[in-house]
Amino acid sequence: MGVIEETDVEQVTLALLDAANDRDPVVQEQVRKSILTLGNQQPDKVLSMCQDYLLKHPKLVVGHRVVVLQTIELVVKSRIDDISYPKIKSVIQLASDEMTKSKEVVPEWQQAASNILVAVGNKYINDIMEEILGKFQPGVLPHFFVIQTLANLSDSNVYGMVPFLSAIMGTMLPMLGMTKQDNMKWVFSSALCRFSESILEYLANLDKAPDPTVRKDTFSSEIYSAYDILFNSWIQSRESKLRLTVAEALGSMSHLMAHDKLEEQLPKLLPTILGLYKKNSEHYIISKSLYQVLEASVNMGSRVLETQIDGLLVALHQQICSPMDFNNPPTVKNHNEVLRCFTILANTFTDRLMVFVLQRLENSNERNRMGSLAVLRHLINSSTSIMETKRLLILASIRQPLADHSNKVKKRVVQVISAMAHHGYLELEGGDLLVRFIIQHCALPDTYHRPPDPEEVTNEALRSMCDNTLHLFTTTVGRLTDVLWPMLLCYLTPNQYANATTPLCKSLILLANKKQTAQEPNFIIDFNAQGSFLYRCIGVILQQCYNKELVRKQLQEMLIGTRHNDAIERTGVAMGIGLCASSHLDGTLEKLEEFGKSDAFRKASGIFGLLKDKNDVDVEKMKSTLILCYGYVALHAPEDKLLTRIDSDILHNISKNFNTKVKQSVLFIECFCTFQHIESWLSSGQDHERERAVKTTAELLQFYLDNLSVKNLVTFHNLAALVGRLAPRCTDPNPEVRRAAIDCVYRLMYIQLRYEGFSLDYKDDSVEGLLDVREKLSNPDHSVLYKTCSELTKIISKRLPQQQLSTLLFMLYDGLVDSQSNCSRASSVILNTLLKNRGAGLQDLVPEMLEVLHSRLQVIGEEQVKVAIGQSILILATQHLQTVVNTLVAYPLPYDSWSCEMWIALGADSTLALQIMEMMIEKLNVMVPFVDKKESMLRPGLTKVTTSQPLAMTCALREMMLNGQSAEAVAHLFPKLFSALLVRLGSSVGVQLPKDLNNICVSLCCVLRVAVEALRILLGRAQLDAVVKPLDQDGAWDKMKDPQQHTTGVTLLSRAMAKHAGPRLPAIVESLCPSLCNIYECQRITVTAFFSELLNHHVVTELMILDMLMNNMMERITDTCGTVRMLAVRGLGNIAVGSPEKVNKYAKELLAAMSSGMEEKDDPGKLITLEAMSGMSKILLYLDQKNVHLLVENDEIRCASIMLLGNLSKFGSGEPVFKDQIHNVLVSLLLHLSDPNPQVVKACKYAMRICAPVIGSEQISAMFQKHLLEEKGLHYGEFINDLTKYLVWSKSFLYYKNMRLVMLLQDPDPLVRVKAAEAMGHFH
């Protein structure tokens, strides 16, 4: 593009400047770019034109002005080096004037001007400071944007600004104490933060700084003085934005404070910062500030910090456990800042931090564990040298999360394992468990039911993550090569890793190629030592083989070719044959039976003979192999086929080869299979069948215990399942069953002890206590049975491993529907005792347990068991309140009767009910009550549709309050509950259910109905029957549910509360006040209607809440909603009825409000006008003489009153009373025709023209219509003379005229008195 001529530049630039305020932002942006293009060629010329444009158009709209200023900034930034110095000076002057022209803060305009100064300040800092400091004088609060500009300059030009900062802060400090407005406090705090950051950057780069002699202590005194005000005063502000900015400033300032001062302040500063987490929903700034304070403290070697470490760790852990929302960047930033805090603490308090984190890792709460794992991963990656000595401790502690059921937790575990792999953890003892964890999850099945939670980690996602992690181990972590090779080969054959075959093979190929290329000696694997592996491989292959003859042949070779003396190989062949049986059960059993009868026990041959020892095979070892094979066949065989073959083909053949050396291999299989046969008889309806089943089980367990030999510590996996089936029988109606059931539990406990490594003759005191329990069970008394049952549970709880607790609980849930009511009650007693003692670690299972309880409620007829289920829910809620509430709230609406029972149960504990209600009140106050949706493409407009959670919580509160035990909680929270439900009532007006609920029992779940019912139940539970009775009589509840009569219903409610519940009103009013500023009109309408009626009653004066109500009503006069304005006017008028003695106190405000109401333009039905007229008539009855002058002095009131008179004549022109009133006021109107306020004169002209027909004189009427036109001038003297001639002929007027003029001679306004005297002269 060529150089444009100067005149062309002017024309084009001017045209562009005119177009700069285009409605389309795209056009605006293009205009800016085009002017920048011109400015790049002729910067001085374009800048001059922009300046002239602003000066010639002083009344430009703000948006247009902003675009021009932004364009100047762009040109300055682009060509700062090419702009002449005089032009720079004029630009500085222009920007400074534009920035401070308006004393009010107009952010967009003033920010644009400020940005120009910052852009210029990057080169001409001295000139900028000369201009800015001229508007930053001691003792005078500067303009908001003067401070903002100084802050931004310190950001953009550190080396230029820092030399000025000492003087700036010296001038600023006295201003801090003068500052009262929050916005000024905010900008000062923000500036101090930026100043501190600039100083720190300057000090960190002294080698580049213009003055390398600057030191931190240069600023310490000023910084501490500012700190004193910010910390002791401003951080207590109610304004959240200000609190956060102050906190941010304190964090930056802490680095510049003198060490002794910071040390002195830490015990107060740290708890204050931590306390901000509870007061603010935005946490990133708080965590950032906390990190800076911690860093400053650690850097100076603080001793006080150690006393704060416990509180710090707890608070930081709570933060790290808060979920991150990647669509909400501040939550991600907060997460990272909190991790930085842990890092800084790890450098000084390594041991305490590690103990804290690893202890928290033991907590099975999902969120808790995820947070702990995040910290652990971060520390492994960021603090390598510090963590070096902790590696074995971490390896031991990570085992617990490996067993977690949550995929979210597993995802974090995988991330931790990946970090550990890169830092040498997996080569240590125990590292193989972590590799196995990754491979296990490479084999995860698909998620068939998609989780409703979008943040849930699906099996597919976790599997893909583990696939990638294994690949990374193989390709990028070189040190793991010898760990993974040949370990990964061992995972190819077990069935549970079948789905992981593809990633395993990919990794093995990569490892093999790497080994082969490097010619490493361990590339060659000696499979003679890997016989077990080969047999398992063969088993997997035979699973997929459909040639039965080939399968038989290979089984034969495997059995004959095994080195039976080698325990590993013997196990390998048994596993391989077991795997084969999963597809070929019949053929495998036939081959095993054939092998058992053959002479192979004496002679062995075949292709696998190469792997045998040359010594004679021990026949006993061969029998062990055969029995082991049967065991693995039973393990892998299809369940539907196994039961028909277990006796005849498996146990029968085992028994033939059974001897004391091999019995342990089959003992459990035999016992377990037998129990499966008799299990169904345990709950038979026939006494003799139950007795035989339980006694047989007792004998079976005794047999197992007598023959049990445990060499290594292992887990008795079936303990919980067996106890869950047998323990409820301890209260069976049949005493023989009871005693036998105790014997079963007694023997199960000792079997568990044997598995734990205790000797055969060991006696446990708690288990021996079961013998005493057994004796007590002879007593059939119910109370004795249940007490005994509780003792039994304590013993079970003590011995049961934590990982089996969930199994036992779910078995007991089945027991709740036992055919014997005694046993179902026992199940509930055991269940609740276990939950009390050990339920705290079951958070992940809570939703599932609640769902089971919900389903059991539907089939349980026994009332006592239902009550016990309620107790179960209460216990779970005591331990996992948030999870229980979240789960129950999410149940489908409308709640079925069983869901309602669960909520009612939660009302039984007053402490718990209090917590739940507080939680729900808090959420109801912040949740979106409805959304606007387009109902149909064919119908215009939007429909309000309720959101599910607030509706569900309202339903929940309703049900909880039905429980009489909730009365204490209701009494404590009554003001908050009443306020929340009243606001919820307002939120429900005209709101519909979602389409998926519209056809489901609408009458039960109508949005308004639920809120009304909850409110009515609340009043009843709070023992306010005196309030409920008149509401019932007046049909108030139905009115509240009717959108057309809603405010009438709320008015009746307010009236009843004022008359019968006065003492409760102050707290209610205080709770309701914030809702008047809500964005939802419906809520403001409801609350305003409630307040409006309260002002009708003297009780508000007695309770000293009149001022609060009046202030709120005055604020609502300007509400955007007409109905709210109407109700506010009504409320202000009601003061004359409720508290007439206070009318004169508020006379000025009341009269102004009524006049505003009477002049209301946006009032289609004239409802506001009518309320204002009604209110004015009430107020005037009580107005003192000293306040009457307000009617005269206030031009607005005079205008409104006169206009009102004219409008009223439209309604009352035929009434004698109205005619009398017109005669009374006519003189006043005539006098006001000469009022100094032109608006009053116009109002008089209008009123007199409208009222003229009422006077009764055609001549006067015609005269008014001709001369009293609003926009036409009036010669007052001539008009009065002409009018007098007509009036003197009207006898009816003489009386009114004389009386009125005499009264006006007493008027406080001298002008009125003069005009009255003048008029009397005309008339007489």
Automatic annotation (TrEMBL):
MROH2B-like N-terminal HEAT-repeats domain: residues covered: 36-254
Domain Maestro-like HEAT-repeats: from-to ranges: 688-917
All residue ranges annotated as the Maestro/Maestro-like HEAT-repeats domain in the record: 1109-1289
SUPFAM superfamilies: ARM repeat
Highest taxon listed in the record's lineage: Eukaryota
Domain MROH2B-like HEAT-repeats: 257-526, 531-682
The keyword Repeat appears for this protein: yes
Keywords: Repeat
Classification via Pfam families: HEAT_Maestro, HEAT_Maestro_2, HEAT_MROH2B_1st, HEAT_MROH2B_C
Entry GO CC: cytoplasm
InterPro entries for this protein: ARM-like (IPR011989), ARM-type_fold (IPR016024), HEAT_Maestro (IPR055406), HEAT_MROH2B-like (IPR055408), Maestro-like_HEAT (IPR048465), Maestro_heat-like_prot (IPR045206), MROH2B-like_N_HEAT (IPR056282)
Identification of the protein by name: Maestro heat-like repeat family member 1
